[in-house]
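Shipment paperwork, digital attachment
Item: protein structure file
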Amino acid sequence: ETITGNRIVKAFNMEEYEKRRFAEENERYFKIFLKRVKIRAISHPLMELLGGIGVAIILWVGGYSVVRGDMTPGTFFSFMTALLMLYAPVRNLNKVNLEVQEGLAAATRIFELLDTVTEVKEEKDAISLPLISKGIEFKEVAFKYDSALVLKSLSLHIRVGEIIAIVGMSGAGKTSLVNLLPRFYDVDEGQILIDGFDIRKVTLKSLREQIGLVTQQTILFNDTVRSNIAYGSLLRSEQEIMEAAKASNAHDFILRFPQGYDTVIGEGGVKLSGGERQRISIARAILKNAPILILDEATSSLDSDSEAEVQVAMDTLMKGRTVFVIAHRLSTIRNAHRIVVLSNGEMIEQGTHEELMALNGEYRRLYDLQFRDDGMRVWKTPKAKKIY
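Attachment content:
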């Protein structure tokens, strides 16, 4: 879970917590292993006893055959000698083979992880990033992924409190753009500045403390509802956790569980519906209370009913924050303060919904492909001062 959900682990500054949890699990496994060794220590003499009984039976049957004249003493003695000589090596060989195969399989997976090169490193003299007060700037940013150029000399300025929607065809570079902000990856060229500070010059902890993340593929852990909401905010009170759940429209369905907030939701939140998982994820972001928010196609995998419930929670979450919205359903971003259109890693259009529709360009083409009427659900983005 920690590996597959590494974006959430990084975004919520939980690397050290996960290291401690891993060490605790290793300790628990070690104790279980010792118990297994003790059981083996008991079972081994028992198996030897059973083996001895088997040999005794063979001796009795063989001896009886010799007495009856069905077998010569020499033949019987040779058979017993060969049997005893073969018994121990075969047993040990089988045991060693099983252990070697288990070890090789585990070692392959472990060494693959250990050999992974860290792509993002913190500078030794990195400073703590002050709370954002002015804005974010992508300055001539270029980014390659597996040698392919994903973003090409992209420049974009976002003011505090602005809700920016990022749209484009699949592979346009939308997710790559927002992944650069919390430094899941580093730019190959250019800079990303927050209040004038290059994000490569600040500590990862102080940077990621200011960024909340809600993704399309909701990452939840095999733990209680409470622990999942408080992930990254472990010192928050029970009341604060409940308030976050209420704000995300999750409190009521949580209380319907027999164990309420102590309900274990299973691996990946398997015991919850898609809408419930997403509202837990939103509650987690609300509790973190980060000034910058990334919504990466947060409702694209939901049905209409679930989307409507999650949308209300989204509206609460976005209030008073600087928001990046990646949207597949263009109806949900009509009221964004600004819409940025990407194509092949380049920004080709930007403006309000009305401005881009009047421009009759790529955004209008994408919009017309999805919708032919005006009867659609939209985000009611919070009122804000005019910022451009």
